[in-house]
Write a structure and sequence with these properties.
9 helices, mainly alpha, 2 domains, single chain, Growth Hormone, Chain: A, 2 strands
């Protein structure tokens, strides 16, 4: 996969030169209509974000997968808390509650602290924030695989709350990558293309869910042998290989994360997000 990066970089340079030709006036008899420099630069800005759009989409695939199968895992565990029966779907309270608390702590304490250390208005860059979320998703996939293996090997029914760590990490990813992606697309898009930036964000979330569906189907198709169904086609999770599938998701997430790091390192922000110290009154008087 990484062998194609130099080739993509080569074509991106030539694409920029190709778009620049749209600004050249060849007269009424020219081969194309004349475009303004602003339109060309706005187009180039959006195209520069596309590699990050694709790599982020791959990195986000594990999120809907873990959310979906964790609820199914919960149905195979001991859902009692004392005399209270806890529905597996109520585990969604964990990431939601964490997001509410973490967002307040992040904005009130973490961002001011990081702002003093890094000089960035948001504490860290948008791409760094997204990367933290993708790393959390990989760790959530690994923990989910280990917990599912332990659940199948346990002599007694495992408690529902063993699934809390992976839900907690999904909450971390939603606090970091979700708003990070939205802020990145909105801040980097030209002023006249903000709606396209928001559309790119929601398209990425939807396409990641679609890729997750294709991944489930592909794994079942590859692991299906004769009368034996695929890893996820068992009558229940006890007869399925969900733990192995989680490892596949973790590997794909890691490859997607490395891909993302490559493009994030090469990306140059349209505007410097560091805080510029304003000169004092005394300095202005001199």
């Amino acid at each position: 996969m990484f062998l194609v990066f130099p080739l993509i970089n080569y074509y991106s340079v030539h694409l920029a030169r190709f778009l620049d030709k749209a600004c050249i006036n060849h007269g009424k008899e020219g081969a194309w209509s004349l475009c303004s420099v602003t339109k060309v630069e706005e187009t180039k800005t959006v195209l520069r974000m596309l590699p990050l759009f694709v790599s982020s989409m791959i990195g986000y695939v594990s999120n809907p997968i873990i959310f979906t199968f964790t609820v199914q895992q919960g149905g195979m565990t001991n859902t009692r808390l004392g005399k209270i029966h806890v529905s597996p779907a109520t585990l969604f309270i964990i990431p939601i509650t964490f997001q509410m608390v973490m967002l307040a702590i992040y904005d009130r304490f973490i961002v001011p602290f990081l702002r003093r250390r890094t000089g960035y208005a948001s504490g860290i860059t948008h791409l760094q924030r997204i990367g933290i979320g993708f790393a959390s998703m990989i760790l959530a996939s690994v923990i989910a695989a280990v917990v599912e293996r332990k659940r199948k090997e346990a002599a007694v029914q495992m408690s529902l709350f063993w699934l809390a760590p992976q839900f907690f990490l999904l909450g971390v990813s939603d606090v970091t990558s979700f708003p990070g992606l939205l802020e990145f697309f909105n801040s980097e898009a030209p002023r006249g293309m903000k709606s396209i930036a928001t559309a790119l964000f929601w398209c990425e979330i939807g396409l990641a869910s679609l890729l997750a569906t294709f991944l489930v189907q592909a794994v079942n198709s590859i692991t299906r042998h004769g009368h034996y169904g695929g890893w996820l086609e068992g009558s229940s999770l006890d007869s399925s290989q969900l733990d192995l599938f989680y490892w596949v998701v973790a590997v794909i997430g890691l490859l997607g994360f490395l891909n993302y790091l490559y493009w994030a390192k090469k990306y140059v922000y349209r505007q410097d997000t560091r805080i510029v110290d304003e000169p004092s009154v005394d300095q202005d008087s001199h």
